[in-house]
Amino acid sequence: MAVLLLLAPLAGVAWLDQPIARYLEFPPRTKYIVHASFSWPVFTLLLLFVAAVCLPFLLRFIAFGSNRKRTAENRDRLPWWGWSGAVLVLVFWVITWNRFSFFAAVQPYTFSPLWLGYILVVNALTYRRAGTCLLCSQPRFFLALFPASTFFWWYFEYLNRFVQNWYYIGGKTISSLEYVVHASICFSTVLPAVLSTSTFLGTFPRLTGAFSRWHPIEFRFGRWAGQLLLVLAVVPLTALAVFPDYLFPLLWISPLFAIVGTQLAGGNNSLVTDLKQGNWQYIVIPALAALLCGFFWEMWNWKSLAHWEYSIPFVNRFHVFAMPLLGYAGYLPFGVVCTEAAALIIKKIP
Which of 220, 318, 226 is nearest to 267 (CA)? Predict the structure, then answer.
């Protein structure tokens, strides 16, 4: 399946009879896709669609919380390593948004220590509320998330070559090897950040309670549904380079279809199992966790020297930091993908 997910977009390039080399340029510097301009009809339709999907969850959360008493929090002090993370965030936030001459040589490399600080802070806040956290209760799994995250996000970078929705600017010219090393270190923080944030949000009873027992969905199909999801994950990716303006959301949906489809086809537990029991928290909480991380990703990226910018067809307007408003909707399925990818990892950790 991994091979199919890698080769499917290249098949579309071959069909276009385009040079494959430009899609595999490394480091990626060339912009070769001219995206469609902003469209009010498309923007409005997508906005209504996102609102229609999110509204039932929002109403459920509001209705559930209005009749529940607030649970007392654990008032223990923040552990020392949480304060260390806070210092990292504060120091590198200031450095990231400014151009100090004494720091000029390493100015492009502020991303990783900033996010390492965030990860420590979120785990410390979780520990303060629940008495435990991902870092303390599952250290092997927590550490395994870092190298896994590197490979995980490299795949999204690969898919982006076929749609070019984001690109990087502001850094100095570096060799391919230096680019791989620096990018891999930055990418290693994605899964730990999202999973740690998800664990933190899971300490709020109002949030977990609202969606742990909600609308059960009865699925009456078996392994063939998993095989269908695998087809829906792979086949559309072949057209990614052919219709980049229309299929770019597949970046966030196809990997999820692939993982859940593989689980269903193998007869294993999956998100479908949880939905049968009315347990929606493993969709809602990861989605909110990625959205929260997304806010900080975009905020700290905004005034960074080495940063990314967006070129998204039809909706590239009403920016919150560098991200178009509707672009934040992509973080919602991405959070679920992160959780499902992490579930594959934890099965391998003794």
Answer: 226
What is the C-alpha separation between 85 and 192, in angstroms, rounded? Answer: 14
pLDDT confidence of residue 350: 53
What residues in the chain have per-residue pLDDT under 70?
65-76, 220-222, 347-350
Q: Are 258 and 234 in contact (CB under 8 A)?
A: yes
pTM of model > 0.85: yes
Q: Helix, strand or coil for residue 117?
A: helix
Per residue in 149-170, pLDDT tens? Answer: 999 999 999 999 999 999 999 8
Contact (Cβ atoms closer than 8 angstroms) between residue 282 and residue 274 = yes
DSSP secondary structure letters along 121-157: HHHHHHHHHHS--HHHH-HHHHHHHHHHHHHHHHHHH
Quickly list H helices, 131-280. 134-137, 139-160, 176-187, 190-201, 205-212, 223-234, 244-247, 250-265, 271-276
